[in-house]
Amino acid sequence: MSERHRKLMEGIRERLDAKSAAVCCRHFCNMLTGFTAGTEIVSRSSEGPIHRYSYADAARRARKLADALQRRGVGPSDRVATLAWNNYRHFEIEHGVTGMGAVWHAINPRLIPAQISYIANHAEDKVLFSRVLFCPSWRSSRRNSPASASLS
């Protein structure tokens, strides 16, 4: 990360404290729920079954995730990654993380372990969410780069 980018991120972090991030997440989730009343989110999990639920349920789960991440020490401008297929869980992570003021990015599971490691290290991810299916790739990428061992 460049020095200019690091200074920019620190400035954002100073302006957003944990309380304002929590308020931001609640506001974002309330807005999401209000605009989509009665609309379903439908996705197919990697295991095969179709999953259906409302935006209100998704917003509730995104708020719970944001609270859990804050308890774990994730704050505004921290980076959080996902190594997973796009489904309802991915949707909740994306909205929970961005709603609390942190930065979310997806890592393509089709990449080779060295590329996964490079992306996670370059982003300085504080947390990485992954499906069990991708653990072999993640373990291999950790062996390639000891700096990524602090990710979860």
Descriptive key words:
152 residues, alpha/beta, Rossmann fold, three-stranded parallel sheet, two-stranded antiparallel ribbon, 5 strands, 53% helix, 16% strand
Q: Please name the fourth-level CATH homologous superfamily.
A: ANL, N-terminal domain
Termini separation comes to 20 Å
Tally of DSSP β-strands: 5
Q: Segments where pLDDT lies below 50 for 5+ residues?
A: 143-152
CATH architecture: 3-Layer(aba) Sandwich
- Globally, the shape reads flat
- Give the structural class: alpha/beta
User: Gyration radius, to the nearest Å?
Assistant: 16 Å
Query: Per CATH, what is the topology?
Result: Rossmann fold
Helix content: 40-55%
| Average pLDDT reading | 76
Task: Determine the strand fraction and express it as a percent band.
Answer: 15-25%
CATH class annotation: Alpha Beta
- How many domains would you count in the coordinates? 1
